[in-house]
Amino acid sequence: MRAAPKSTGGAREFRGVPPRRRFGSRRRSPRWTLQLYSARVSFQRYLWTLVAVAVIAAYGIASGRESDAADAPSAAALAAFLGCPPAEPKHATGTRETVACKEGGFDVTAVTFDDNAQRDAWVESERLTVIASGFAGLPAALVAGDRWAVTTGDVPAADRLHAVAGGWRV
User: What is the pLDDT of residues 85-124, one digit of tens each?
Assistant: First the structure.
């Protein structure tokens, strides 16, 4: 006796091979899935991965704002970048290191600080000098970064320092 064929929704089997499923009739997993680059990833796992990346990025941004004083460049290195001969840094009140030299007829002063509050106070006092020099027709520039500042009369050198070291320029 022969067994009755199983119902396949109107399609017949041919020699034990099941019929092709029609478009859109494939089986779905119990969870909704998101297909990324042909790998099936559950939406919940995708969401937790995004949250983890966001937390790591926020931690990296927050920890970068509080850097050690050892990370700041030395005043001698900043002055050397502007063309000053190697000089021994001096320690002035409110600063960590100060190097002053005359390079190519221009005065160069490179100063490093223990924190940015000291830098901001120093920059405020020097900013008026730089602006007044500009009104008088004398070249002057002030470049400041994280716990350092440089004043010079060599504006192209200040632009190069700003391009390499970042920070801001007056």
Answer: 877 778 777 778 888 888 777 888 889 888 888 888 889 9
User: CA-to-CA distance for 17 and 50, rounded, in angstroms?
Assistant: 43
E-strand ranges in 12-155 read 33-36, 39-42, 97-103, 106-112, 141-145, 148-152
DSSP code of residue 69: G
Residues across the chain: 170
Strands in 141-145's sheet, in edge-to-edge order, are: 97-103, 106-112, 148-152, 141-145, 168-169
Let me know if 52 is exposed, middle or buried by CB neighbors in 10 A (0-12, 13-18, 19+): exposed
Most distant CA pair in the chain: distance in Å?
113
The Cα 149–Cα 143 span in angstroms is 6
Selection from 122, 80, 119, 118 nearest residue 101 by Cα: 80
Burial category of 18 from C-beta neighbours within 10 Å (exposed 0-12, middle 13-18, buried 19 and up): exposed
CA distances 159 to 60, 62, 66, 82, 166, Å, are 29, 29, 26, 10, 10
pTM recorded for the entire structure? 0.55
